[in-house]
Design brief:
By secondary structure, the protein is an alpha+beta fold. It contains six helices and 15 strands. It has two domains: 111 residues, Phosphorylase Kinase, domain 1 (2-Layer Sandwich), CATH 3.30.200.20; 122 residues, ATP-grasp fold, B domain (D-amino Acid Aminotransferase, Chain A, domain 1). The strands form three sheets. Strands 8, 9, 10, 11, 12, 13 and 14 form a seven-stranded antiparallel β-sheet that branches. It has a six-stranded mixed β-sheet with strand order 6-7-3-2-1-15. The chain has a two-stranded antiparallel ribbon with strand order 4-5. A hairpin with an 8-residue loop joins strand 10 and strand 11. Helix 1 packs parallel to helix 6. The radius of gyration is 18 Å and the shape is globular. The two termini are 16 Å apart.
Length: 254
């Protein structure tokens, strides 16, 4: 197996240097974490499923003109992506009350919101990813006002498309988290969707029964986490014929 230099390792993915300048290989792990890494487990096959689901959604978003860092899937656990400068702000789009929003405002989970709400969180595990405002973001130089306008635009377009796509397969898109980055090409820069879109960062409920098929199954000890992810892949028509198979990660150079 090829030896690759590890560039970054997060909670659910590892980034390795890519085959060409300006590219990275994104490897999906089976690790599941919650509550700022206080809860951790290995969910066999999760990385394989997230790789396939994220590939499918990135491709579909690309078809409607959403710029992304995704180039192509390499194998069961790896994608080739463009190297971007990640903006340290997590963008959360909420369509129904759930999670921290339901707790903050004492709204029953599953309540349809009057309109989609966009929230920003500073990307910092050390600080617990605190909720921030546009003023924080621009004052601390994490992004400019024009970049935030573009991010808001893209986030709402992504939400509109994904909500329609998922309801078409009997799933409600409760909320989701995305990240964006600056892609530099020659001397020009554009904002693109980065990271991943998968059940790790989307809440997806059955439209009829409200059964959860996302990471909340792990957070709340509901059990059958892998089966929930498999159900999403099955409904999207992308579950591997032989089921999720394990694939060892590449050997790394420290």
């Amino acid at each position: 197996m090829a030896r690759r230099r590890r560039v970054y390792e997060g909670k659910a993915k590892v980034l390795f240097e890519g085959p060409e300048p300006g590219t990275l290989i994104q490897y999906f792990k089976d690790d599941a974490t919650a509550f700022n890494k206080k809860k951790h487990a290995i969910i066999t096959g999760k990385g394989v499923l997230n790789n396939r689901i994220s590939e499918y959604l990135m491709l579909r978003l690309g078809e409607i003109g959403i710029p992304t860092h995704f180039i192509r899937r390499l194998n069961m656990r790896e994608q080739l992506v463009r190297e971007v400068e990640i903006i340290p702000v997590e963008v959360v789009v909420r369509n129904y009350a759930a999670g921290s929003l339901a707790e903050r405002f004492r709204i029953e989970e599953g309540t349809l919101l009057p309109r989609s709400i966009v929230e920003y969180y500073y990307k910092s595990d050390e600080l617990g990813d605190p909720l921030v405002t546009e003023e924080h973001i621009t004052a601390f130089g994490w992004a400019t006002y024009s970049e935030l306008d573009e991010i808001m635009n893209l986030a709402l377009r992504i939400n509109d498309f994904l909500a329609g796509l998922f309801i078409g397969v009997g799933l409600k898109l409760i909320d989701f988290k995305v990240e964006f980055g600056r892609l530099w090409e020659d001397e020009e820069m554009r904002i693109v969707l980065a990271d991943e879109i998968s059940p790790d960062n989307c809440r997806l409920w059955d439209a009829r029964t409200s059964e959860r098929y996302d990471k909340d199954r792990f957070r709340r000890d509901l059990g059958n986490v892998e089966e929930g992810y498999q159900e999403i892949a099955r409904r999207l028509g992308i579950l591997p014929e032989a089921g999720p198979r394990d694939l060892k990660g590449p050997e790394t150079l420290q």
